[in-house]
């Protein structure tokens, strides 16, 4: 059986649009670079394939930070296999798969499934994006830490398709991801300002009679979130920025030193809301196509660096979801195969950017935001421990986090040659990573256990992490319950106890029980 060649010689290509050179690629890695005609493309086994690249530009592999692969759940619209084939055709070597699948990618199990589907397809690297909230409902934080520690190594979290509209939840998410250098990617859309909206609010929407989508619905969320990111000191990424004032808000935030990045989609670089006049659902997207003034503003923002990257927001749908009337059609359009051409047409051919800038906004900057390290190996799946007994010590796993490590088994004792009874039982670590927190003095709770102090206890695992809320010498609380310090007995109770008389009846909270609620010996 013949094998495909693994070595290619590209002649006359222009890296980043510079001078023509010859590139020797071996197993996907640049093995040689030289002036035209200086590299030997011959081989005894004929495994070197020579490709004439005269007039072509060589770029690093593109990285998309915003892709909807639909799997699991909507395989009728797209699969990881078909989506990554489209990405490879468009020049991408890595994509970030958004979390709005069925089920939602809000647990370690789902993101690991998506990651493995990408590995099985083998076309490009697939990096799952974890949901910020459970079920994208915006009510409770999802398992951010578990997804970050999973095989998929999730570092980008987003409820894309929906906005994290609750400011408290958004603040908590920004605080949480800060511990492992993650980033929250916000779909900026105030839901109450866009109920029933169909297209950009403006002259066109008024003339054709479609419900308007105001620009302030995007801008108000971006303004709120950059202030939250500044307050927390965490990383924020703004998805599919589309209005002129959104560009100004991000520019202002960067001037203040806020760690915020932003993206623009190819269709917001080239299309306007005038295309909605024909009621063609192909142009129904979220956020909607804006005015020409907004298009010019986002182009300027991409040129001057206010907008960091171009992301496709590749959102495929079935024919039934798009081949219908405008009001019933789904939001979204594809973009993986056309993104590079759109950037060339709107930014390079117009003189706004060079090919080196294209490599920055489509490759290096997205990889930096998504914390993609080409040399990092996938981590192994975490071990599963099962035992009611816990023997562990606390260590600093990463800045701002503590984790419980399993205690190694003891060596056989010289006296009997047998393993200790403790070592013979299976062990389980608490498997809980939690933020470092020191109780304020006003609470009366003890400070956190010093780093490296070993804990050996017969309690269930979750009781181990609550010991420092109980206090030294006190009996640990039962799992799932927090034991609070009991109040001191009253002076009357202490006097009655010293005199040998029965004291006043008190409840578990230390307060006297009303006389009509007491149970005496006669009444049972």
From TrEMBL:
The keyword Transport does not apply. Residues 400-524 are annotated as: Disordered. Residues 450-469, 508-524 have a biased composition (Basic and acidic residues). Keywords: Hydrolase, Metal-binding, Pyrimidine biosynthesis. Its cofactor is Zn(2+). Transmembrane segments: none annotated. SUPFAM superfamilies: Composite domain of metallo-dependent hydrolases, Metallo-dependent hydrolases. It comes from the Bacteria. Residues 57-244 form the Dihydroorotase catalytic domain. Pfam families: DHOase (PF12890). Residues 413-434, 496-507 have a biased composition (Low complexity). The keyword Metal-binding applies. PROSITE patterns: DIHYDROOROTASE_2. InterPro entries: DHOase (IPR004722), DHOase/Allantoinase_Hydrolase (IPR050138), DHOase_cat (IPR024403), Dihydroorotase_CS (IPR002195), Metal-dep_hydrolase_composite (IPR011059), Metal_Hydrolase (IPR032466). Belongs to the metallo-dependent hydrolases superfamily. DHOase family. Class I DHOase subfamily. Catalyzes the reversible cyclization of carbamoyl aspartate to dihydroorotate. This is Dihydroorotase catalytic domain-containing protein.
């Amino acid at each position: 059986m013949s094998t495909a060649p693994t070595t290619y010689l590209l002649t006359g290509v222009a890296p980043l649009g510079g001078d023509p050179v010859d590139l020797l690629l071996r197993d996907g890695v640049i093995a040689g670079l030289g002036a035209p005609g200086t590299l030997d493309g011959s081989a005894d086994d004929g495994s070197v394939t020579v490709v004439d690249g005269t007039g072509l530009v060589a770029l690093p592999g593109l990285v998309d930070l915003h892709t909807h692969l639909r799997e699991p759940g909507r395989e009728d619209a797209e699969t990881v296999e078909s989506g990554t084939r489209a990405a490879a055709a468009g020049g991408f070597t890595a994509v970030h798969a958004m979390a709005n699948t069925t089920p939602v990618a809000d647990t370690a199990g789902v993101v690991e499934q998506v990651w493995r589907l990408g590995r099985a397809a083998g076309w490009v690297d697939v990096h799952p994006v974890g949901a910020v909230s459970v079920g994208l409902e915006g009510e409770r934080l999802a398992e951010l830490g578990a997804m970050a520690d999973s095989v998929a190594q999730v570092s980008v979290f987003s409820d894309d398709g929906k906005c994290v509209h609750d400011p408290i939840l958004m603040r908590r998410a920004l605080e949480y991801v800060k511990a492992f250098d993650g980033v929250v990617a916000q779909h900026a859309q105030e839901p109450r300002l866009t109920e029933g909206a169909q297209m950009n609010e403006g002259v066109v929407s008024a003339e054709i009679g479609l419900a308007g989508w105001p620009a302030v619905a995007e801008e108000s969320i971006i303004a709120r979130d950059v202030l939250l990111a500044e307050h927390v000191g965490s990383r924020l990424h703004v998805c599919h920025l589309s209005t002129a004032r959104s560009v100004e808000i991000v520019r202002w935030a960067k001037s203040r030193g806020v760690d915020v990045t932003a993206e623009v989609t190819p269709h917001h670089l080239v299309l306007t809301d005038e295309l909605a006049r024909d009621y063609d659902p192909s142009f129904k997207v979220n956020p909607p196509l804006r005015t020409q003034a907004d298009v010019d503003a986002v182009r300027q923002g991409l040129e001057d660096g206010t907008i960091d990257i171009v992301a496709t927001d590749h959102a495929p749908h079935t024919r039934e979801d798009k081949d219908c009337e405008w009001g019933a059609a789904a939001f979204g359009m594809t973009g993986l195969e056309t993104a590079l051409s759109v950037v060339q047409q709107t930014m390079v051919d117009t003189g706004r950017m060079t090919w080196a800038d294209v490599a920055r906004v489509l490759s290096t900057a997205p990889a930096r935001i998504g914390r993609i390290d080409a040399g990092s190996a996938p981590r192994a799946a975490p071990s599963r421990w099962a035992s009611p007994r816990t023997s562990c010590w606390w260590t600093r796993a990463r800045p701002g986090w503590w984790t419980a490590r399993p205690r190694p088994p003891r060596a056989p004792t010289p006296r009997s040659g047998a393993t200790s009874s403790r070592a013979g039982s299976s062990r389980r670590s608490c498997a809980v990573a939690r933020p470092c927190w020191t109780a304020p003095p006003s609470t009366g709770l003890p400070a956190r256990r010093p780093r490296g102090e070993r804990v050996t206890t017969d309690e269930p695992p979750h009781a181990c992490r609550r010991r420092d809320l109980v206090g030294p010498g006190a009996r640990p609380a039962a799992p799932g319950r927090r034991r609070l310090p009991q109040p001191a007995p009253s002076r009357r109770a202490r006097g009655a106890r010293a005199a040998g008389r029965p004291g006043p009846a008190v409840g578990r909270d230390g307060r006297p029980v009303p006389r009509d609620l007491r149970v005496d010996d006669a009444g049972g």
